[in-house]
């Protein structure tokens, strides 16, 4: 009898946790060819100090746009990778930006960042951002080329080594 109860409970727990579990990427293979890339919509969101972070300010750099939340398990796995990429490739032209999608905004994100510092700019996303970038699940990460065009979008966790290869490829493009 206990076995019959455990299956529905396990399925319910899996269903509730699924949106932020560390699944492999569901994006397509590799980078979109340069000629087919769409312009990334410009964003202008505030960091914890109220300073506006605008995507267009990063033109000429490859941008890793990390859409995450403090409650997302997969996001927490990826962020240290992105910090490493930022340190490793900043001089070659990589800029990372984190967009936290927590419902309570800085009320939740501020204390989280105090305990878990992130070495790149963090802003809080809003409904406009979510609609503009079609944020349907987390984690979601975009690579934007030096010309401000979307080169790749990953829904779910990225494959670390493949993602790093894509970053290196974009950094070689001129």
Walkthrough of the structure:
The chain has helices at about 1-15, 75-90, 105-115, 125-130, 160-170, and strands at about 45, 50-55, 60-70, 95-100, 120-125, 140-145, 150-155. It is an alpha/beta fold and about 170 residues long. It has one domain (about 20-170): 3-Layer(aba) Sandwich (Glutaredoxin), CATH 3.40.30. The strands form two sheets. A five-stranded mixed sheet has the order 5-4-3-6-7, with helices on one face. Strands 1-2 form a two-stranded antiparallel ribbon. Strand 3 (about 60-70), helix 2 (about 75-90) and strand 4 (about 95-100) form a beta-alpha-beta unit. Helix 2 packs parallel to helix 5.
Structural class computed from helices and strand pairing: alpha/beta
Estimate the global geometry from the Cα principal axes.
Answer: globular
Distance between the termini: 65 Å
Report the C-alpha radius of gyration, rounded. 17 Å
Write out the strand line-up for the largest beta sheet, numbering strands in chain order: 5-4-3-6-7
Mean pLDDT: 86
For this structure, what is the CATH homologous superfamily?
Glutaredoxin
Helical residue percent? 25-40%
CATH architecture: 3-Layer(aba) Sandwich
SSE string, helices as H and strands as E: HEEEHEHEHEEH
Number of helices: 5
Beta-strand residue fraction:
15-25%
What is the CATH class name?
A: Alpha Beta
Count of beta strands: 7
- Taking pLDDT < 50 over at least 5 consecutive residues as the criterion, the unreliable ranges are 1-29
The CATH topology is: Glutaredoxin
């Amino acid at each position: 009898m206990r076995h019959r109860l455990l299956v529905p409970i396990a399925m319910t727990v899996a269903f509730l946790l699924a949106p932020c579990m560390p699944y492999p990427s569901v994006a397509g293979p590799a980078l979109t060819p340069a000629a087919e890339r769409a312009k990334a919509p410009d964003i202008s969101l505030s960091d914890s100090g109220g300073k506006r972070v605008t995507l267009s300010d990063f033109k000429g750099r490859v941008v890793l746009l990390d859409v995450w939340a403090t409650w997302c398990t997969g996001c927490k796995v990826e962020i240290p990778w992105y910090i490493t990429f930022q340190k490793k490739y900043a001089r070659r032209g990589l800029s990372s930006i984190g967009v936290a999608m927590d419902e309570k905004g800085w009320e939740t994100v501020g204390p989280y960042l105090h305990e878990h510092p992130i070495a790149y700019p963090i802003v809080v996303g809003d409904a406009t951002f979510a609609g503009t970038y079609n944020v349907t699940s987390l984690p979601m990460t975009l690579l934007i080329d030096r010309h401000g065009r979307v080169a790749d979008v990953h829904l779910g966790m990225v494959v670390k080594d493949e993602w790093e290869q894509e970053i290196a490829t974009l950094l070689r493009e001129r």
